[in-house]
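yo, Protein ced-11 is done. seq:
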Amino acid sequence: PQGIADAEFCENYLKPELSRKISEKFPKLRDNSLSRNIFRDRIMDIIRYAKQNEQIYLTVLNIYEHSCNLENLGNHLLRSLFKSQVIDNTNWHAQMHKDLYLTLDWNSPHVAMSEVFLKDPSNKFKIDKDFFDEAVLRPQRESFVDLFLNQGFQVHKYLTPKRLILLFKKVRHQEFFQTICWEGALGYGPVSNIKRNFIETDLNWLIEKTTSMENFVSSQELSLNAMGMYCTDPSAAERKAKVLLTFWATYTNRILLAKTLWKHADQPIHLALVLSMMIERLTLYVTDTSLKVEMEESSREFADIATSMLDACYIDTPDRAFDVLNEESPGWAYNTAVDIAAEGQNKRFLSHICCQKWLTNEFFGKVKIRELSWGAFTVPTGIKVLLCAFLIFPMYAWTIFQTKECISTEDDKDIIDFDSENEDDNKNLIKLSSPDTVPKEEKTAIQRTWKSVMWNPSSFRRYVIHHPPLWKMVYLMWSAPITKFWTFQIFYIIYLAFFSIAVLWPSCGNYMLDLIVCCWTSLLALESVHPAVRMRKKYKAKAFILKIMEIVVMFVFVLLYLIGRILPLNLIDAYSTRVILCLGLIYFYYRIIYIYLPISPTLGPLLYRVKLMVLVDFINFMRMTILVIISGGIVIHAVMYPDYPFNKELFRRTFHKAWFSLFMTPITDLSGDSRCNPNSRSYSNLTCRAGEFDDWKCPNVGLWSYIFNIQYFVLLKLILLTLLYALFSATASKLSAESDAIWKFQRYHLVVDFSNRLRLPAPLNVISYIIILLQFIRWLFCRALCCLNGETPPEGAKSEDRRFSIKDYTYWNQLAQEYDSTQQTKEMEQAILEKQMDMIQSLMEDFVYHKQMMQSLKSSVRELERLMNYSHVHLENIRHLANRESSVTSTWDAMTDTSSRNLPPVMNILSRRSPYPGTRVQRFPVPDKYVPWEVMWISYDPVAFTLQRSDFPVILQSHVDEDILLLREKNGPQQALPVYAWNSVSVNPAGIGLDRQCWITSSDGSALIYKLDSEGVPQNPMGRTGLRGRGSLPRWGPNHYVHAIITRFQKAREAFLSTKGLEFVVLWTERRFQLSIPGGFVAGEHRYEVIKSMFKPQFTGNAVWIDSNSIIKFFRDCVIAKINLSESSESFPSILDNEESLKVVCDIVHKGYMDDPSNTDQAWKEVELWHIHFDEAENVSEKLQVKY
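structure:
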């Protein structure tokens, strides 16, 4: 138990164990027992006094645990420090202040939350501005900024003008801010400093340059908000301060800090779109490639965040998604989210389905075109719009208008109840009530909610909508962008018809018609000015050079039209005027392609591809083709018309032939002209004719003309045109995925363009200009009247219907928090997966290491088993050698015993010797107990050895079997292998008999039938030998040998050891330098021919030795009939005196298995051993071959 010391345990176990550990870790203390014991006792004292009262002074970390991560060692140290602190309740605020600064300094936000803020459940501790300042300025402190904001830190109280300037001054010499923002965007030099008016001048200019928002921040507004004297409300002040701090983080390339601040924004979609645009525009001043790629990735990331937020809201509550696209917040210069996305050219955001639906609603304005079915006949939308606009009364059948007066009180109640049900289902954060009890600040939200619900198609079927007054219907109808689109288009077509007639009118034209066309054209030019000015005010960063050039060209055309046709100035001739009109007509016809056609979902993406094909691919094609055209045209004309005069016609003909070859193949000149006669070559010295004809108009057709024409047409027609098709195909395939998103982005500008146009098309827009002029006069009159009365002139107020309520801001802030937590969860899951992969990799490495260790251990065990087997085999060999003498004696006794001629049983002893004779092949060691095949031995895996046929003596090569194991390994088991007649006698194709029967007899006296192993070859019947294959034996299975032991008693006078000496015949092999018993391999069907070959042919004759009688007869004939044995009798008196012996003994002493070092598991020797002993005089030595 804690606090109780077990003396016996400490003395008998703990102290000795600590001493042993100390000796292992500190080798110097091994021999110094006194110091080691003092060290040990101090360790025990530390553990004994580790906990005193509520303080813990000792914390133990097990570094071998998976939960212990030494990367967070600072957190463990801080927790250990806080555990050892003495709590002072009288000065708790200073203690928390000190602890929080310590955690901030060590960058341990989790410790700050668990050890500092949780100790203050009443939330009395307030975070100082210095803490937030340190968290913002110090790197990698984003978690503390998030923590402080979650604790309720008010940024607008912190962000005063002085502190904002100080923040920029502290990062003034930071590389990113200095090179990109200060020197690049603002254009200051490296030695320039931040001045006191930095906010009103430089900062606003920097924000305007990166976001297109003018006068975004004001020092006076920041000061008032910090003092609590809010210009609008506290939430707007806090929102503006967070946005400014986010901008500061972006300008200093603190993207992670910007993401942290974005998480606490009330308008996350607007802020993400602005940050994406800001970073993308800052990349224009970046020269470092890696930094530029990083910033582009950050810009895409913020754009994806905005799109993902919109998608999440659209899936959850589509009404709020449309609301956020409609909101015109004063904090963003009254720009909607769609306007910000268009300003930043965020194609992915604008191509979202919610933005496209919103864009469709904007295109229809406050008019809903009803789809009424008339059976199989349906009226197109364009015709409906035109009929409603001009005939007025079809509006009652085909249109529905959105106005506040259309909604009845009963409908308000239904909608409010409908929204209340959504509130109960937790799908809407704004709770609505009846109109009588609705607070004033929530009416705007109710109206906005009704607007979103009303445009749901199901809502039109559910509620009865009343039409507004007729004048309001006409006003709304002609104000809708879709009405402008179709009316402008139909009037433009009428204009083109008049223009075409004016161009076709013969001679100098019709004055009235020209006057109408000229006035109409001037009104079209004025019509282009109005939307261009409004678009310029709204999108300041967009390039309007092409638009300005278009307006200038149109006014120049009007001026030339007036001079040429209307005014009697005669400055331009009639033909030139007609050419100018033709150019204008072409331009105005082509103009319809990019004004009216791109809004089509079919033609829009296609026209964008065509635009890139023309402006990119075709230009690149012409850059290559122009060289071929110019060079080919000049060369062909110079070769075919060498004498053509140098005049304007020469250039015309050259240009005509070269350029029109793109569309046709002019080869008529190569046919020649029959009227042309060759020149006589008789011309004066003043003239030189290079051609063949006197007439310079005659073409010279020859070899070089064909060569230059062929190369020109091959390059132009076959190569370059094919290249153009390939470029078009590559562009189409490359843009197939993104062309739809690009078209959706361009569709926004088309809709906005028609929204900004006047309600009446040209030439009716004269009425609109008159109305605008009257409104301007009225405004001047009201302004002058107010000035006379001393009143402030009224300013144009922005619509309050497109503002968020407090609940809307709360919803979007909560959605941003959920999105961030979701992303963090995904990152954690990804980190867990990566960590799991690392752990799996570590486990795999450990597994591989242990596997290698196990394999090494198994190898060691196998080696030990092998050594033990070898030792066992060697011991058995020693035992066999020790028993050799007794074995030889017993064998000799058995051979000399006439009553019993059987040898003792044979075991593979010599057959297990290593190495294999004549090689270095080592046998698998086989102990005696594993010799029989009946004993199972799983680890038995001997090597295979087979002597090649070419290594045998030439006389035996024809009798050598094929290497079956090698053939099976090379060709596979399916390959046909040689077939041998095992356990039988057969005749080979040469007519030689082959005896593959076994000479080993069983207990009943019959021949032994040997078995075949799994490889289909014979198996050694006497057991394992430690070697597979055929070895050095010529045949698989039994190899028959016949040997003869020829002996006689010693004939010399001297006797050895008072006994009779025994002499025998041996065979000397010079090639191997060895002695052996006479005999050899039985290759054919007559086994005794081997014995016959031992003797000279003149003594054996030509007869074949078929059976044993031939051997017995031959050796008996070798006995000498009359011999003087007197000398022999003196030497061996006892033998001749004691018994009468036979003259010669010829017996088979053994027939069967022969234990020989050449034996293998699949080939063995079988021997028929003869013993021939002479007791009488003989002449065998005279009949033997020289080698015996």
